[in-house]
Amino acid sequence: MPSKTITSVDVARRAGVSQSTVSRVFSAENHVSEATRARVLAAAQELGYQPNVLARSLTTQQSNIIGIVTHISNPFYPYIIEKLTRRLQAMGRQTLLFSVEPDQEVDDILPLVLQYRVDALIITSASLSSEMASQCERQGTPVVLFNRYALGAKVSAVCCDNIEGGRLVANLLLDAGHKRLAHIAGRAPTSTNRDREKGFSDRLRERGYANWLREESDHAYQTGREAACRLLQRPDRPDAIFCVSDIVAFGAIDAARYDCGLRIPEDVSIVGFDDLPTAAWPAYSVTTIREPVNRMVELTLKLLVERIINPQAEPVLELLPGQLIKRTSARLAE
Amino acid sequence: MPSKTITSVDVARRAGVSQSTVSRVFSAENHVSEATRARVLAAAQELGYQPNVLARSLTTQQSNIIGIVTHISNPFYPYIIEKLTRRLQAMGRQTLLFSVEPDQEVDDILPLVLQYRVDALIITSASLSSEMASQCERQGTPVVLFNRYALGAKVSAVCCDNIEGGRLVANLLLDAGHKRLAHIAGRAPTSTNRDREKGFSDRLRERGYANWLREESDHAYQTGREAACRLLQRPDRPDAIFCVSDIVAFGAIDAARYDCGLRIPEDVSIVGFDDLPTAAWPAYSVTTIREPVNRMVELTLKLLVERIINPQAEPVLELLPGQLIKRTSARLAE
DNA sequence: CACAAATTTGAATGCGCATTCACGCAGTGC
DNA sequence: GCACTGCGTGAATGCGCATTCAAATTTGTG
């Protein structure tokens, strides 16, 4: 058997020191003389020794693994995960990835996640029952919701201010003199979907506008395109559509142009939400609300680390403002 | 301290059995009477016990964790990772995600990966020195390269047949009577980049065509767009461009339409590679080579599992044919 | 130079679990 | 009635490492 795993004992024997000393060298810890440190490192090098961090986690009670629960059908999330993973890596932590059905309750998979003794948990694109939240609480696993929040449960959340974002869009469309408004909402009952719609419709009502149209999609190109088709084939078709996310807006734009033969923005204005990279491409050039993703990521990690250090800390809800990005998919007030 | 971790000993005490028995129940193992099994499960339920899989990995020598090394700037990879993660989850294994700079040598991060005692390693969008490959070999960690291969190293690889794909494109463009061909290649010296270019240019030469144009990009929209601009602003501008990947093709199409005022495919044909979902959207409608991603994913997992079971198995290189998908971004032979 | 203090090192222990071994007990066949 | 299986269970041990405690060594100080 050539592939016998090399342990700290092997290194110790080879370097002529005790296993404790090897451990000290690799924990970047205190009080090892330069001479022995060098001997140990040399021996480790020769043997190809890598410390077993899983074994280490047993005694330290820290795995340096962060769980991320997500689904990737909406291209918003890969960018988030990429950023999170990179930043975590720079902090010496790794990402254990769990994939769930879009907007499925995360409860099914949570027991599995907890078995891996992740130091903390980031949940995107899924929600968490308060029962499971308290299970995490009991086990001392901090949870941060990303782009979601849950008022009942004792978990932190980092979110774009979706209500204000919806209001900004309502203002933009009314100011530009649109007469017939519509919203393609998200189907799942998430805080994000609700808030974007709420901000939009509240502001419309405040400004005396009623009877906007409404369709649903599920944050995917195809269902967005279909929803837009239904709207645009009505006799009283809208002259402006606010889509719950950019990916839906792409579908809506293609529906308008290629399914219905309409011009954008002359015949119909389309507004999205997120500001995906693709939204800036000239083929779409989507007017949208930009989520402050970098700040959201930083804040998420900050909350995470704080609660890893002090698990007693009270959960926080952080709302960050989005920014209106004006491009050419919507007619503007002159 | 309320958040004392619950261990199998706690469950054992509560259920009035030994720790061994608890362990047997949760290893879904042999020979536990129904009565005691029920008692143990009840006790576990009441205490909220979750077995610690990291501790388990110490004795079983299996972590059930699969490392995936990737970078996500090219949207091809999120889809792959999503699929891999889902399938792994269904097999009871989890994904530990490592992010690297595009096409960076993966050597820097590999020691870190090995510290997590992953059962196996999938590497996409990065290459592996043969020295590191043998380090994995020594430690008994099977490696599968996805969409890359390395002839020297003793690692398995699953790959689209990029050479044949390049040939298909060359045939398509010549058959349609294009007179002035160009290739936007990938900058990094990866097998994928090389093979796509090789298949394309070999076939051109075979058919007596020489002096095609060449530019480089790095599998990103922006650099693809810039490369296309350089080509299309030449006095002898090409009437067909083969792009190393779809994301580059999107940039090239926008360059043609919006930077150079050209019509597609009347003035210039654009062909991509990968068949991203976006390639089917009417705004782009990219003629492309579809990678058989589902079969590639299945094959990757099959190789992985085989080598986890039998680490002595010889490494394999699997080449799967791509499929030409004709859309409207390229003029076709009638 | 003597003695206290600081530094370096090793032996022993435990983290949470799987697994081996041995033991007790019911059931089988004679 | 007895030896013999075979199943269900517990005690003991080890996985690879960090950490505590005590011993050994070096350093600093009067």
What features would you describe in this structure?
The structure is a homodimer of 334-residue chains. Chain A has 334 residues and is an alpha/beta fold. The first copy, chain A, folds into three domains: 8-51, lambda repressor-like DNA-binding domains (434 Repressor (Amino-terminal Domain)); 60-161 and 293-322, Rossmann fold, CATH 3.40.50; 162-291, Rossmann fold (3-Layer(aba) Sandwich). Chain A is 43% helix and 16% strand. Chain A has helices at 8-15, 19-26, 34-47, 53-60, 76-90, 110-115, 130-139, 162-175, 191-206, 221-232, 246-259, 293-309, and strands spanning 65-70, 94-99, 120-124, 143-146, 156-160, 181-186, 213-217, 240-243, 269-271, 288-290, 317-320, 323-325. Chain A has a six-stranded parallel beta sheet. In chain A, helix 7 (130-139) links the parallel strand 3 (120-124) and strand 4 (143-146). In chain A, helix 1 (8-15) packs across helix 3 and helix 5 packs across helix 12. The radius of gyration of chain A is 25 Å and the shape is elongated. The relative contact order of chain A is 0.11. The mean pLDDT of chain A is 92. The first copy, chain A, binds a DNA duplex (30 and 30 nucleotides) through residues 5, 7-9, 17-24, 26-27, 29-33, 36, 51-61.
